[in-house]
Specification:
- The chain has helices spanning 3-17, 19-28, 40-81.
- The chain is mainly alpha-helical and 86 residues long.
C-alpha cells in the first residue's frame, strides 16, 4: 500500500478510534503488498522443503565422510602391510 494511502487510512482511523488505537492498529498492518506476504500454509510448505533439502544434504555429507574415512583406513592398512619401512 502506498504511503499516501496508509496515511489516509491512519487519519481516518484516528477520527474513529483515537490516536492510540489507530497507531496500534497501523503498527500491525504490513507495509507491503498483500500479494508479497506468505500464508501460514505457504510458509510451512517452504519450511518443509528447506527441512527436506537439509536432510538430503546431511545424507550426502555423511556419505562423503564415510568414503573419506574408509579411504584413510585403506591407506593405513596398505602402509602397515607394505614391506617398506616408514
Amino acid at each position: 500500500m502506498p504511503d499516501s494511502k496508509r496515511l489516509d487510512l491512519y487519519d481516518g482511523l484516528k477520527d474513529v478510534l483515537g490516536i492510540v488505537r489507530a497507531t496500534t492498529l497501523m503498527t500491525h498492518l504490513p507495509d507491503m503488498e498483500a500479494a508479497d506476504l506468505l500464508t501460514k500454509n505457504e510458509f510451512q510448505s517452504e519450511m518443509d522443503e528447506i527441512k527436506d533439502a537439509l536432510r538430503d544434504l546431511n545424507k550426502r555429507i555423511d556419505r562423503v565422510l564415510l568414503t573419506l574415512v574408509a579411504g584413510l583406513f585403506v591407506i593405513f592398512a596398505a602402509v602397515l602391510t607394505s614391506s617398506h619401512p616408514l
